[in-house]
Structures are given as structure tokens and as C-alpha cells.
Write a structure and sequence with these properties.
Blueprint: H1 9-42, E1 50-51, E2 68-69, H2 71-83, E3 106-109, E4 116-117, E5 121-127, E6 142-149, E7 154-157, E8 159-162, E9 167-173, E10 178-188, H3 190-202, E11 207-215, E12 218-225, E13 234-236, E14 247-249, E15 261-267, H4 274-277, E16 288-289, E17 297-301, H5 308-312, E18 323-326, E19 329-332, H6 343-350, E20 354-359, H7 361-373, E21 378-379, E22 391-395, E23 400-406, E24 416-417, H8 424-429, E25 437-442, H9 452-472, E26 477-481, H10 490-496, H11 498-511, E27 518-520, H12 522-527, H13 539-553, H14 561-564, H15 568-571
Helix pairs in contact: 1-9, 9-11
Bound molecules: 2-acetamido-2-deoxy-beta-D-glucopyranose (NAG) (3 copies).
Protein name: NXPE family member 3
Keywords: Signal
InterPro entries: Ig-like_fold, Ig_E-set, NXPE4_C, NXPH/NXPE
Length: about 575
């Protein structure tokens, strides 16, 4: 391009100007985030920062709200709270019979007989009713929805708008031709969501943790958490670098530095009254299908040949849904995906790469999948627990090193040694990075029982480390795997509901947008799939997640030209 410059000086001048503007813009964005980080440290003594408060009524619990935030951080935190604001029932105590009943409720496809074509929008209206069949007058129910074609193993999720009067509208994008079926389910009634919110704010101790302290022949076990109520003496294990809070009650005879491990204490029972428990019943109002009135399918016709060009130009990075399944293969809508069907394709892609997986068991599944599927990648026996790690696998022939480390406390694992408790932010600070380094991060599930502030703080620390890493080594691949949906019973709902995951996922996506990281949309990839929801998704879903990951590192080279040679269905990639 630059070689033509002598001929078209003016064009080149504008190109250069544009490039400079783009650079300055990017620099400014990073700068903003980074100073947000430093201000946190520097401004502490000044009168500028105020104690964290939010506009809404939030019951304060222990110490998270004593975070000192810079003005930028405070503003961000307020906008994050606004983004996850959820409508509440008008009264605190609604009798069960007046709560949302999925069986009496219904959905209806608008214009089900219309001439639908690939790329069109499909709209569905949902009307909620209570157990007496009366229409609900307020919103706040949590719905999940998808369109799917069983014979094509195709699926995609919908986006819900809550009218807050008992009606909801769901928007789908029709992405493949054929007969397409709509499914809508009630995950929790709004009356249940209100209780989940209350538990999040008032009972962050409902999942609790323990540590063993040991010295000589004396050993003691005490309870630990991000904060501990009461006046009993505590050991302060707050992280020196990140400020992430962690406390254990002080053992009676031993000193704090004799702590040797961390483990899941348990989940508290009896959190709800029997009346309240009615809002969480399997087979009644947890993840129950809502019936349709009228047809629940539409026929979608394929696109004609001449329409390809207009599709290519709609290439955009902020699309909903982000992708869909077709023949059980994930098709992201903003970039082409490569399918790594053979283990040798994976080996070739990862040749010379240093790969770090940080987070919870859902990213440990990537480690397990890769070591199982790629024979050259041999797991080393480090004597560590298979669940907790650290895990390591090598392929010395192709110079590949794969690591898994779990994130810092809280972890609901069986036992983690104190020496293995590392915060992701601190780990990132120890990585050189570069074009041969791939870092993938997932953190959500173990933080679902705490107020949102706890999660935001954790992400803020990780983001600060990511921004620094990308500054020193801009070519580093940093990939965030989002949360995923899972199976729910009455108990899991109170600790790990998809609603908790959805709220955290919303926050994570906002906080990590525009800083140059890649996303693997595990949320859509589990919700759109035909298989039942599972905390640990099946291999077919993991395979697709890894195809997305590997496509970031080893993209298809012949980008657009590739499109012209393939069949009609693929054209809808850029719809
Ligand atoms: C609910 O609100 C929507 C949007 O304002 C409106 O179109 C609809 O008619 C309302 N439904 C009922 C039952 O009031
Ligand atoms: C715990 O330690 C951190 C720093 O290590 C300190 O900032 C914090 O105030 C301490 N918290 C309590 C409750 O002692
Ligand atoms: C990978 O496997 C899938 C399903 O078996 C198949 O549809 C696809 O064409 C294969 N892709 C490549 C690149 O081999």
C-alpha cells in the first residue's frame, strides 16, 4: 500500500492521519484504565476518594464496602450496578399462588406465517400468569430462550426484553434455513429472583470455607471467608499485592502463620422459610418450559446468491447472538472459525506455544480435553490433585507447554494447600508474554455467593494485570472464557443459579471490553446447544470452545475469499 504513495500523496496523508488518530485513541483508552489502577494506590491519603456507596439501598455486610475507589472506579462501579439492576416485585411477600406459574403462562410467535428468510428477525411475546391463571402485573422473571432445528443440530439463543407488566418480548435472529422451533423456559419466577438477591446481599456466608492450622502435634480447623462477622479474633490473609480480602477465625492455640490449607466447609441449610422454598421447586418453577399458544415453529428460506455482498459488509464486533450451532459446529458471526478435527491440527497450531489456563474447573476441562485428545501432549505427574492442580502437560517435540492453575480463594474444592493459593492477577504479573504466550482465564462460579462488589474487585485486579501485560507484550493472546449455564435443583439454585452467573457474566463482559482480549462465549455455546445444561459441559461443546480459542491463535488465512467456495448455509456467518 505505501509503495503507491508517491502517486497519491493526498490519500497517503489521510491514511497516515487516520492511523495516528487510531493510535492516540487506543492509547488513551489503555491509559485511562491504567491510571485508574494507579490512582487507587496514590490517592489513598488525599481527600478525593470517597468510601464506596451506591444509590440503591444496599445492606452493608462486613468490609467490602470499605474499598477506597478512585473517581473513575466509582463511576464504573455505579454503571456496572446499573447494568445488572433487576426489577423487583412491588411487594416483599407475594403468596406462592400469585407467583409466576410456567404452566399457565404462554408464548406466541408474532407473524408465524410470514415469509421468513435467513437474516430476518423473529419476535416472540411471552405472557406470564400466576397459579390461578391471572395475568402477572410486573416483571422480573428470569427467562432463557433458544431457536433450534433438531435435524440440523442447529441452535441459537434469544434476547429478552422485560416490559415490567407481566409481558416479555424475545428477539431471535434467524441464522439458518429450514424448520426452526422456538423454546422459552422460566429459570426462576421474579419472586424467587428477589430471594436470590436477598441471599446474595445478606447471606454471603451461605457457602463457607475452612482452613487447617497445624504445628507439631497440634492442629485446629477454623472457618474462613472474604469477611467474618462478629468480634472474634481473626487472622488476616488479605493479599499484599492485590488487596483481595481473606480471613479465618484465629485458632485458639496456634498462630496465624501455621495455616496449611483451604477447603470447602459446606453450604448452609435452612436459608429459606417453607413458604419461600415454594419458589424453588424442581418440576414446578425451576427451568420449566413455557408452552406456546399457536405454532412454535417457523419456516426459514435460504438466501439467494446475489445477497452475499451485503452480508459481508455488515461485519461487526458487537453482534447478538455472537454465534449459533449448525450440525453441532459453532459458527461465530464476526469471524471465521476453523475446525480442529485432527489432533495434528491442534499440535500444529500450538507449536512453540506456552499456554496458561487460569481459573475454575470449567477451564480445567480444556486442560483435560487437550491432554486426552492430543496424544503428543503428555501430562506430567506432579503429584497434585487432579481437580485443584497445578497441572502441566508438555510436548517436547513441538515445544508446547500447557499449564492449569486454579484461581485464588474462595474455592469450593476439597483441599488446596496454602502454598497453591494464587490470585490470577499476581500470576499474570509474573508472565513475560509475547506472541507465543496464550493465556485463558475463567472466573465466576466460586464467586456466585457473594455481593457483586467482591466480584468486581477481583476482576478489577485481573484487568489491571492484563492491561500491564498487554503493554509490555502486546502480542500476547489473552482469552476470557465466559460463564456457562448449568443444571439447577432447589439447592444449587441458592448457591449457583444461572441468574448469579448471568449477572457476573454481564459485569465481566463490560469490564473486559475494549482492552484487546478475546472472548470464548461459553454462555451462548452452552445455552444454544441441544444437550441438557451442565456445570461441566460435554466434550462436543468443549471441542467447539477450543475451536474458537484455536481460531484466535491460528485463524483461517484466506479470509473472505474462503466464503465464495462454500455452500449456502455458511453465507449466513455475516448476517
Ligand atoms: C406491557 O407493556 C408493553 C410495552 O409497553 C405493551 O405493549 C403491552 O400492551 C403491555 N401489556 C399489558 C398486558 O399491559
Ligand atoms: C487486613 O490486612 C490488610 C493489609 O494487609 C489491611 O489493609 C486491612 O485493613 C486488614 N483488615 C483487618 C480487618 O484487619
Ligand atoms: C470436522 O468435523 C465435522 C463434523 O464431523 C465436519 O462437519 C467438518 O467438515 C470437519 N471439518 C474439517 C475441517 O475437517
Amino acid at each position: 500500500m505505501w509503495s503507491h504513495c508517491s502517486k497519491t500523496h493526498i490519500l497517503c496523508f489521510f491514511l497516515a492521519l487516520l492511523a495516528i488518530l487510531a493510535l492516540v485513541h487506543n492509547f488513551y483508552q489503555l491509559e485511562n484504565l491504567n491510571t485508574a489502577g494507579f490512582k487507587w494506590l496514590v490517592e489513598e491519603d488525599e481527600s478525593q476518594p470517597s468510601l464506596h456507596t451506591t444509590g440503591t439501598h444496599r445492606k452493608l455486610y462486613c468490609g467490602y464496602e470499605h474499598q477506597v475507589l478512585s473517581k473513575i472506579e466509582q463511576k464504573e462501579e455505579e454503571s456496572l450496578f446499573a447494568a445488572v439492576q433487576w426489577p423487583k416485585p412491588p411487594e416483599n411477600k407475594v403468596p406462592f399462588v400469585r407467583s409466576t406459574d410456567p404452566f399457565h403462562s404462554n408464548f406466541m410467535i408474532l407473524n408465524s406465517n410470514a415469509n421468513y428468510r435467513v437474516g430476518d428477525q423473529l419476535e416472540v411475546l411471552v405472557h406470564m400468569k400466576d397459579y390461578d391463571g391471572n395475568p402477572k402485573q410486573y416483571g422480573g422473571d428470569y427467562l432463557q430462550s433458544r431457536i433450534h432445528s433438531a435435524d440440523l443440530k442447529a441452535g441459537a439463543i434469544g434476547r429478552t426484553v422485560d416490559y415490567q407488566n407481566g409481558s416479555y418480548r424475545i428477539f431471535f435472529k434467524l441464522l439458518w434455513p429450514g424448520e426452526v422451533t422456538v423454546s422459552v423456559s422460566l429459570v426462576h419466577p421474579s419472586e424467587g429472583i428477589q430471594l436470590l438477591y436477598r441471599l446474595q446481599e445478606e447471606r454471603p456466608d451461605r457457602a463457607y470455607f475452612k482452613s487447617l492450622f497445624k504445628s507439631g502435634r497440634i492442629s485446629e480447623i477454623t472457618i474462613c471467608n472474604v469477611c467474618l462477622p462478629g468480634d472474634m479474633p481473626v487472622c488476616n490473609f488479605t493479599d499484599r499485592y492485590t488487596g483481595e480480602p481473606w480471613f479465618c477465625y484465629k485458632p485458639r492455640r496456634l498462630s496465624c502463620d501455621t495455616r496449611i490449607n483451604h477447603f470447602k466447609g459446606g453450604l448452609k441449610k435452612g436459608l429459606l422459610t417453607s413458604e419461600e422454598s415454594n419458589f424453588f421447586q424442581s418440576g414446578v418453577n425451576i427451568k420449566m418450559p413455557i408452552p406456546s399458544i399457536g405454532p412454535d415453529t417457523v419456516i426459514v428460506r435460504p438466501l439467494g446468491h446475489g445477497e452475499l455482498n451485503s452480508l459481508e459488509s455488515s461485519h461487526n464486533s458487537d453482534v447478538f447472538p455472537s454465534g449459533y450451532y449448525y450440525q453441532d459446529e459453532w459458527q461465530p458471526r464476526t469471524r471465521l472459525i476453523r475446525h480442529f478435527n485432527k489432533s495434528s491440527d491442534i499440535t500444529e497450531c500450538l507449536q512453540g506455544k506456552l499456554i496458561y489456563l487460569f481459573g475454575d474447573s470449567t477451564i480445567r476441562q480444556w486442560f483435560e480435553y487437550l491432554t486426552k485428545f492430543v496424544p503428543d501432549l503428555v501430562e506430567l505427574n506432579l503429584g497434585s490433585s487432579k481437580k485443584v492442580g497445578p497441572l502441566m502437560a508438555v510436548d517436547p517435540k513441538h515445544n508446547i507447554l500447557l499449564n492449569f492453575h486454579c484461581h485464588g480463594p474462595p474455592l469450593r474444592f476439597f483441599t488446596v494447600f496454602t502454598s497453591q493459593l494464587h490470585y490470577i492477577a499476581n500470576e499474570l504479573n509474573r508472565i513475560v508474554g509475547g506472541k507465543n504466550t496464550v493465556i485463558a482465564i475463567t472466573i465466576w462460579s466460586h464467586l456466585s455467593t457473594f455481593p457483586i462488589e467482591v466480584y468486581i474487585r477481583r476482576l478489577r485486579n485481573i484487568r489491571r494485570a492484563v492491561v500491564r501485560l498487554l503493554e509490555r507484550s502486546p502480542k500476547t493472546y489473552i482469552v476470557i472464557k465466559t460463564a456457562n449455564v448449568q443444571e439447577h435443583g432447589p439447592e444449587v439454585s441458592l448457591f449457583n443459579s444461572d441468574w448469579y452467573a448471568y449477572q457476573r457474566d454481564t459485569i465481566m463482559r463490560k469490564m473486559f471490553s475494549k482492552i484487546g482480549v478475546y472472548f470464548v462465549d461459553a454462555w451462548e455455546m452452552t445455552l444454544a446447544h441441544r444437550l441438557p445444561h451442565k456445570l461441566h459441559p460435554e466434550n462436543i461443546i468443549l471441542k467447539n470452545q477450543l475451536d474458537v480459542l484455536l481460531s484466535f491463535i491460528c485463524p483461517l488465512e484466506t479470509h473472505y475469499r474462503f466464503l465464495t467456495g462454500i455452500h449456502n448455509q455458511m453465507w449466513s456467518i455475516f448476517v
